[in-house]
Each structure stands twice: as C-alpha cells, then as structure tokens.
C-alpha cells in the first residue's frame, strides 16, 4: 500500500511538472554551433535539472545542465561538435530531466520534433564600417556565415540598419535591405553632425524562421560641414520628389482633358447632305418634303418650244415581198397558195412588219 501511494505521488508530481513547464520552454540556435534554451522552473523543482537533446536518425546526444536549481527561469546552452554542423532536415527530441527530493530520476518530453531551421536567432553581424564617396555615405558589414560553405542561411537573411544623432540619440532612423551594404545620400543627413550606426539580421521567413539577432557593435561617424545639397526651401530634401510628383500629375491631367475634349467634338459633329443634294438646297432651301412633293406631281408634258425637232429623215427601202419567207403563219395556207404575182400579202405579226407593210395591209383590209 505504501508503495502504491508513493507511485501515485510521483505521477501527480510529474504531471504538475509537465503542466508547469510545457508552456514556458524555448530553445533558439544560431544554426552554426550553439543551441540556447530557457525553461521556467517552480520552487517544487528542487535539485539538479537538465535537458537532453537526442538527434533523430542518429546516435548524437547532448546534455544541457540548467543553471537554476531552486525554481524560476533556468537556462543552458550546448555546443555542437563541429561548427556549421546544422542542416535543413535536422530534428531533435528534447526532454526535461531532474532528481526528486528522494533521489529518484524523472524525465518527460518537452518537444518530440524540434527543427533548428525554424528557431533561428542569427549571430549579430560584425565588421560594420562607414565610408564616404562622392555625395553618399556607404555602410558595409558581414553576417558571420560566410565561412559556412554548405548552408544557404547566409543568402536568406534580411538586415535592419539603424543610425541616430549621437549627441542626444534623436532622429532615430531605420533602413531595411537584403544585402550586406547600404548607401545614404548626404542630403538626407544633417550637416556637421555626429551619428551612431548599428545593424542586426533575421531570417527572411522564406525557408528559415526565427527572430532578430542582437545588434552589432556601434560605429560613430560625422558628416561634413559643407555639402552640395540645395538650399533650404521648397527644393530641399524632399522638395524635388514633390515637384516631380506634381509634374507627373499635371501631365496626366492635361492628357486626360485633351482626350475628353476630342471625344466631345467628335460627338457633336453632324455631317451635312448639302454636297449630295445641290438642287434641294438651290430650289427648296433644304426642305426635303417640299422637294419630294414637287417631284411627285410633275407631269410629262412638253411645252411648244420643247417640240421634238427632226434634223433629217432617212428612208429605208422595204424588202420585196417575194423575197420574204413566211414561217409559222397559222390558218393561211389557202392564201399563200392562191397568191398572184405582184399581189400584197397582209402582215399578221406587226412586230416583224415594216411601216410600208402596215400601210399596205391596212389598205387591203379596207378594200
């Protein structure tokens, strides 16, 4: 019975331990050599505690002794066997272990799939330098990962460059870039002023994840007392940008106005039919209805002076009847048979008869 009670107490103690620490655990790494962790321990966690790091698919194991043994935040760091030893697919199991008051050892899992590439706190950049050339100040630095040939983290970092007035820490400015260099125009700085500059880095969140590094060491520098910047006024500092923006806006407004005016003129234009109806405009003054009525009521009559004049008359010699061939003449066989020489045969198809034939035919019919 006593052993059962002891076992229940140990289970309750372990359950309380797990609940108390699982939400206050964090491990960051620099993705080159070191892993640093912090765990919030309560006063119930007396004695020595440590973290075990077991690399999956490998026999590598690391032990990280926590610094606090009497409750409160505990921290520790482990160093890998070789520098630049991390790769993208590395995975660890992290367990928290400790000794209870009776000397028993207990362990429980904090993270069964810790991916170093998702918990990166990069090393602070180093070797920050400032130089002046022409009308710009140039800043250069190193990310400390140049020596790691097989890691692509050095190509997936973004940087924050900060500088401020060194006398009163005023005018704090931040600039962001993906490169290890940056330039600032002299006109964006105060003349004859001492500035302090520093830089830090973080993963770009495309493939790696993490947080900002610590700041690099600060560098102090002073601007020249005389620069080629325009005098204070409208064209100083941001004046040129504003002037350029206004110019672009005015140009676009002018182009739009011309387009609308052209469209309006095109819509108002109505072509006139006058070139095609000269008589309409000359006689009826453009009254189309009057012109149509006049045309409709016009009779085909000829004035006396419009009588047809015949300039000449040409008489056509009629063909001889005995040379004509009559074909398809119905009901006339008797007449053709009794025809005497010199007699006149009536014309029964006017469309094939001459004027003399018609006259002779009329005489015969009258007789």
Spatial separation of the terminal alpha carbons: 168 Å
Largest sheet: 4 strands, antiparallel
Question: What would the average pLDDT be, to the nearest integer?
Answer: 75
Structural class: alpha+beta
Helix-strand topology string:
HEEEEEEEEEEEEEEHHHHH
Strand composition percent: 25-35%
Strand order of the largest sheet: 4-3-6-7
Q: How many helical stretches?
A: 6
Report the count of strand segments: 14
Morphology call: elongated
Helices and strands in order:
Blueprint: H1 2-21, E1 25-29, E2 34-41, E3 49-55, E4 61-65, E5 72-79, E6 92-99, E7 105-114, E8 126-133, E9 136-142, E10 157-165, E11 173-177, E12 181-185, E13 194-203, E14 219-222, H2 239-268, H3 278-283, H4 288-296, H5 333-337, H6 355-366
Antiparallel strand pairs: 1-2, 2-5, 3-4, 3-6, 6-7, 8-9, 9-12, 10-11, 10-13, 13-14
Give a written overview of the molecule:
The protein is α+β, with helices and mostly antiparallel strands and 367 residues long. The chain is 22% helix and 27% strand. The chain has helices spanning 2-21, 239-268, 278-283, 288-296, 333-337, 355-366, and strands spanning 25-29, 34-41, 49-55, 61-65, 72-79, 92-99, 105-114, 126-133, 136-142, 157-165, 173-177, 181-185, 194-203, 219-222. It is elongated.
């Amino acid at each position: 019975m006593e052993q059962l009670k002891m076992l229940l107490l140990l289970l309750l103690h372990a359950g309380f331990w797990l609940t108390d620490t699982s939400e206050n655990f964090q491990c960051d790494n620099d993705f080159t050599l070191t892993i640093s962790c912090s765990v919030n321990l309560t006063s119930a966690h007396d004695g020595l505690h440590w973290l075990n790091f077991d690399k999956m698919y490998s026999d590598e194991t690391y032990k990280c002794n926590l610094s606090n043994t009497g409750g409160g935040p505990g921290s520790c760091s482990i160093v890998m066997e070789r520098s630049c030893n991390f790769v993208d697919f590395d995975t660890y199991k992290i367990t928290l272990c400790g000794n209870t008051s009776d000397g028993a050892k207990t362990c429980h899992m904090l993270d069964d799939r810790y991916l170093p590439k998702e918990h990166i706190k990069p090393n602070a950049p180093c070797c920050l330098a400032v130089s002046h050339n022409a009308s710009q100040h140039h800043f250069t630095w190193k990310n400390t990962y140049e020596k790691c040939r097989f890691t692509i983290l050095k190509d997936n970092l973004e940087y924050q460059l900060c500088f401020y007035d060194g006398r009163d820490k005023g005018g704090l400015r931040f600039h962001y870039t993906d490169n290890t260099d940056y330039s600032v125009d002299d006109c964006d700085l105060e003349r004859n002023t001492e500035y302090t500059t520093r830089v830090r880095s973080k993963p770009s969140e495309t493939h790696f994840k993490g947080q900002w590094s610590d700041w690099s060491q600060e560098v102090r520098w002073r601007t020249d007392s005389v620069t080629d910047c325009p005098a204070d006024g409208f064209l100083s500092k941001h004046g040129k940008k504003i002037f350029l923006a206004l110019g672009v806006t005015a140009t676009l407004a002018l182009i739009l106005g011309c387009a609308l005016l052209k469209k309006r003129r095109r819509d108002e234009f109505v072509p006139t039919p006058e070139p095609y109806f000269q008589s309409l405009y000359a006689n009826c003054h453009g009254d189309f209805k009057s012109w149509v009525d006049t045309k409709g009521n016009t009779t085909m009559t000829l004035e006396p002076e419009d009588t047809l004049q015949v300039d000449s008359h040409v008489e056509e010699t009629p063909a001889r009847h005995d040379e004509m061939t009559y074909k398809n003449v119905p009901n006339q066989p008797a007449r053709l048979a009794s025809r005497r020489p010199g007699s006149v045969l009536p014309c029964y198809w006017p469309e094939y008869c001459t004027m003399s034939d018609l006259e002779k035919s009329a005489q015969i019919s009258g007789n």
